[in-house]
């Protein structure tokens, strides 16, 4: 991912937090010479050896997985808030741009056994049901429903490299930076307001 130095995020803890909070990603690989991508939850976890990995699952009907045996290298893309930045918000003439946060994780994928897949599914459901009034638990699902769950297979990605971009107008002086935040907050657009919030964290 092309990232000018000023926009590079290199703090491991901030990247870790971002991945946990923005875990709906895009899994990309090459299958039969063609690029394939699937939009799925991909969770940052710790494996039995204490190493950080990514894990998730795919439908057994998804042909993307056919490529894993040929080439286990994959790319997982995660995006955070993003928004258009109008150059009319500056005190000088310039071009409009886009502010965003994104993380690319490169690694090697392997399919896990069925028992591990079900354990991954339990953990995923528990994470997102935690605030539910009537939380669903995989352990409580009927045999019939669990047959559907067995239509997936889990995977783990051993991480080789992480590239993180946080492009939040860091190249602007304090006056213009604060004005961008103010204009974003006026939009009432959730994405724009989320970017304004991230910008406020970066510069007081």
Secondary-structure map with pairings?
Elements: H1 12-21, E1 24-31, E2 34-41, E3 43-46, E4 52-59, E5 73-85, E6 97-111, H2 114-129, H3 143-149, E7 152-167, H4 174-186, H5 190-202
Antiparallel strand pairs: 1-2, 1-5, 3-4, 4-7, 5-6, 6-7
Helix pairs in contact: 4-5
Explain what you see.
- The chain is of the alpha+beta class.
- The chain is 29% helix and 35% strand.
- The protein has five helices and seven strands; from the N terminus they run αββββββααβαα.
- It has helices spanning 12-21, 114-129, 143-149, 174-186, 190-202; strands spanning 24-31, 34-41, 43-46, 52-59, 73-85, 97-111, 152-167.
- The protein is elongated, with a radius of gyration of 20 Å.
